[in-house]
Amino acid sequence: PGAARVGLGHGLTALAASSAWYSTIGEFWPLVGSGRQPWTTELLLALLAFGLTPFALPAAGALLASAWRRTPGLRPTLSLLAVWALGLLALALLRRRFEGYAVMGFAVCAAWAARALARWIAERPRVPGWLSPAARLGVLLALAAPGFPVALTGAVAEAPAGAAEKHPLLRWLAAVPAPAGREGVLSSWAEGHEIQAIARKPVVSTPFGTDIDPRSLEDQAAFFTAADPEAAAALLRARRVGFLLLHNPVREIATMSRFAPGAPEWAIEERGLATGSRYAMRPEMFDLVVSRLFFFDGGSRSGEPRALGAYRLLAESPSQVSVLGLTAQAYKLFGVVEGARLSVRGARPGTAVAASLPVATAAGRRFLWATGAAADWNGAATLRIPYASGPNGASLAGPVTVGDGARSRLVTLEERQVVEGLEVPVDLSP
Length: 430
What we know:
Blueprint (H helix, E strand, L loop, with lengths): L1 H15 L22 H12 L6 H14 L4 H20 L4 H25 L9 H12 L3 H7 L8 H12 L9 E3 L5 H8 L16 H9 L4 H10 L2 E6 L3 H7 L10 E4 L7 E4 L7 H8 L14 E6 L3 E4 L2 E4 L2 E5 L3 E6 L6 E9 L5 E9 L6 E5 L4 E3 L2 E3 L2 E4 L4 E4 L3 H6 L2 E5 L3
Parallel strand pairs: 1-2, 9-17
Antiparallel strand pairs: 2-8, 3-4, 5-8, 6-7, 9-12, 10-11, 10-14, 10-15, 13-14, 15-16
Helix pairs in contact: 2-7, 3-5, 4-5, 8-9
């Protein structure tokens, strides 16, 4: 009894989409009227799933009523068909998850109606032209019409959203060795299975929600809503994450905030029957770690001199997206590293010490990665650099220019120094 109550409670929670997890998943939205997509799009998707078979339900209902009166012995079977077809229709309207099950009942009803129509035609007096090849073809097409939308579109396996952009990155990632203790990949939960299947690397979360462990969604949400770089880095270290696959993070920030109790609402999902989901964003959303990586390659919207020194851009997709005037590549793959620590000496006390290096990506984009820190009264400063001089995955980085405005040095960094976080001395003394 206890197990039954747990199972029943879980099922009712899913049916009502009353948890933060189920309310986020598309298959637990209503078939039409969810507000997540324009209603016209939802009707089109329903057409692709069911074809025209729902229009055969009234005819099947009339046939059922007639058979109920004429053949009492079939009433148990007819009752089963009615409950099956109408019950699954109701469930499909309530939750898209059931649309695949409802197809079977619709198909039976449509076939029944088509057979009755064929018999009706066969019983009519033969009129010239009825048996002509063109007439036969027309009747056949009319009977088969309910299944055309499904046959033409639904029978074709649909690739995941963004597959053309991200799958090449995942195939490339499959050949990249992961640093010890950094084997995992963090991304949107929706991409978890694709990463497991194509990149052959462990993930933090998947479309199954908590199949990795009970805290997988909470930890993913904590990263996507983190404004503190140290807190984000600690979480990735605890999760053994060595790679980040990022796309436009706005939706993830808005929906995953439900799994991060106490976190501010950096972005809010607004739903409309005509428009579908839209998002309102606070300006501070662009200061989150994930936003700084996606939109500014680790920099910041304010031009703050201290960039994120634990992430290097390994590869990115060729196409771009735009959010409130900010343009970024649609998908970015970052490597998580300790970052080489430049121990600067001999700078002018109290001045700003800056470090910068050029990065060229395989997608043809070039940017300048830069960071900085204030020298103390002994002329010392520490700068964290995530790029080696040379190849960084599919990206190419140049040497680091370090200076205090009066003097500068050119520093070449090795892969091991960047990955392990080794100290590299830099002397700016005259």
